[in-house]
Design a protein that fits this description.
- The protein is α/β, with parallel strands linked by helices.
- It has two domains: 96-139 and 283-332, no CATH class; 147-281 and 349-485, 3-Layer(aba) Sandwich (Rossmann fold), CATH 3.40.50.1110.
- The protein contains 18 helices and seven strands.
- It has a five-stranded parallel beta sheet, sandwiched between helices. The protein has a two-stranded antiparallel ribbon with strand order 1-2.
- The chain is globular and about 105 Å long.
Length: 506
């Protein structure tokens, strides 16, 4: 039987006597810790310090995990910095605030059951305030309208409130400006009017009067929808002092798209209007596409909304791949919607969407679109003049108008859209500028603002036609002098024809 290690250690340290064991002074043999390679009482190896000194305690699994968790933020931070440096070196620095806005815009664009590139209204709040995007603020339900083709459901209540307002003394005392046009005019009503009001109030003719804006721009509206809308509002009891019509892009881009789908260029945008006109006539293939579109929208909104809540765009490592995935989901939704439109147009009732026969070559289509735009503006001017209402028509700037702005990398990337829109804007804007000059000759108050960004290097556009709040402030500074220059003086005779009713301007 082998000797006990501790006993053996004592015997070798001392001198035996008569077969007995003599203790070493101080009990050194008994108290000495096992050396390297030795074993303790439990049979476990125990590490010693340098020179065989006091033992080192091994790290347990829990302590190792805690250390790794403590180091994880440091490692992630280093990876984040390295990734940002790489992006910057490639000329594409990561901007967390811009990424948050971009994410909010994607989620907002998916609010409609039929997403189209121009349906970005629900992202307005996010584009204006990257820290607190209000994605629910502008959620809208589109519906069929007997005069306008289609409209947003909430405008019925807005119109009722504003009709009541025009019957009050407050309306008589204020200077009310009715704004019409497409989605760019809708954004201008939110982001451009503060600067426009400031400039208008500085004019002595408006001194002491409150300047109020009635925002009636609608996404995807194009002439003659604005002309019909203003006529309809006047019949309801609207009495604005001025009408500001801000348009141009939809008139050529959507008209060109209409024509390529077999619908007359002057008809309302068939993608928005057609689905309501043919409601209840869908075949099963169209219904299946609608379900797939809605499922994809729901999942995109859920993912994007959760990312916004958690602030995931603060990290480039998370934000970049997240945006890439959401852009792919958004594009898939647009592609499905295009397939739905094709399916809709192939149905037996699609002839209801075509309208009167028209020349289908692109040059003829754009000539028809610009003529429609000009005549609609003349109708608006005549309606306003007959009621003593000041009218100003403004041609909006747009990204695909060649030479209208130095475009950044991001503007070029996010400005991509369907070819019918791109070609409509590229070929149509020179015709609009020429048409605007003709309108001036015919006595229409017209401002060509298509080149107001020509010297602006700052990134303004976030898609093919919409721009951020700084762009609206620039536009307001161009509109204000044009509006004031054509505004009748306080002592001037009204520009209404003799005998005309002048219950509009007050």
């Amino acid at each position: 039987m082998s000797a006990d290690p501790e006993s053996a250690g004592g015997e070798t340290a001392g001198h035996g006597d008569a077969g007995g064991r003599r203790e070493v002074s101080g009990g050194a043999g008994r108290d000495r810790a096992p050396g390297a390679g030795e074993r303790g009482r439990a049979g476990d190896p125990v590490a010693t310090g340098p020179g065989g000194g006091s033992p080192r305690r091994r790290w347990g699994l829990g302590r190792k995990l805690l250390l790794q968790l403590a180091l994880l933020p440091v490692l992630l931070g280093a990876a984040e910095l390295a990734y940002r440096a790489l992006l910057a070196a490639r000329g594409r620095p990561y901007d967390a605030a811009a990424a948050r806005v971009e994410l909010a815009e994607i989620v907002g664009s998916m609010n409609s059951p039929f997403p189209e590139p121009e349906e970005r209204e629900a992202a307005d709040a996010a584009a204006g305030d990257a820290d607190t995007p209000d994605l629910d603020a502008l959620k809208s339900v589109q519906m069929l309208h007997p005069y306008l083709g289609f409209d947003m459901a909430e405008f019925a209540e807005i119109e009722a409130r504003e009709v009541d307002y025009f019957a009050t003394p407050a309306a008589a005392a204020a200077y009310d400006v009715l704004i019409v046009g497409g989605s760019v005019s809708a954004r201008f009503g939110k982001y451009g009017t503060p600067r426009l009001a400031e400039l208008l109030r500085a004019d002595p003719r408006l001194a002491g009067r409150e300047v109020r804006f009635l925002q009636h721009g609608r996404g995807a509206f194009k002439q003659p929808q604005q002309a019909v809308l203003v006529g309809f509002l006047l019949t309801l009891g609207y009495r604005p002092d001025a009408v500001l019509n801000l348009d141009g892009f939809n008139e050529v881009a959507l008209a060109n798209d209409n024509a390529q789908r077999g619908t007359h260029p002057a008809y309302p945008q068939v993608v928005s209007w057609g689905r309501h006109a043919l409601a209840g006539r869908f075949d099963w293939d169209a219904i299946e596409l609608l379900h797939e579109i809605r499922d994809l929208q729901t999942s995109t909104q859920a993912l994007g909304g959760r990312a916004l809540e958690l602030g995931l765009t603060r990290s480039a490592l998370v934000g970049r791949p997240l945006l890439k995935r959401l852009h792919a989901m958004q594009q898939r939704s647009v592609d499905l919607n295009e397939a739905f439109q094709v399916q809709l147009a192939s149905g037996a009732d699609a002839r209801l969407l075509h309208g009167p026969p028209f020349e289908t070559d692109q040059a003829a289509v754009l000539r028809t679109a610009v003529r429609n735009w000009m005549e609609s503006s003349r109708v608006l001017q005549a309606m306003c003049r007959g009621r003593g209402i000041h009218y100003l028509h403004v041609l909006q700037p747009t990204l695909h108008d060649a030479g209208s702005k130095p475009l950044s990398f991001r503007e070029k990337r996010h400005g991509k859209t369907v070819p019918s829109w791109t070609e409509g804007a590229r070929l149509g804007y020179p015709l609009l500028r020429a048409g605007g000059e003709r309108l001036r000759q015919l006595g229409v108050n017209f401002l060509d603002a298509s080149l107001v960004f020509a010297d602006v290097e700052q990134r303004l556009y976030f898609d093919a036609c919409h721009f951020r709040p700084p762009g609206h402030a620039i536009l307001a500074e161009a509109i204000a002098p044009a509006l004031l220059e054509s505004l009748p003086g306080a002592d001037d005779a009204d520009d209404a024809p003799a005998g005309a009713a002048t219950d509009g301007g007050r």
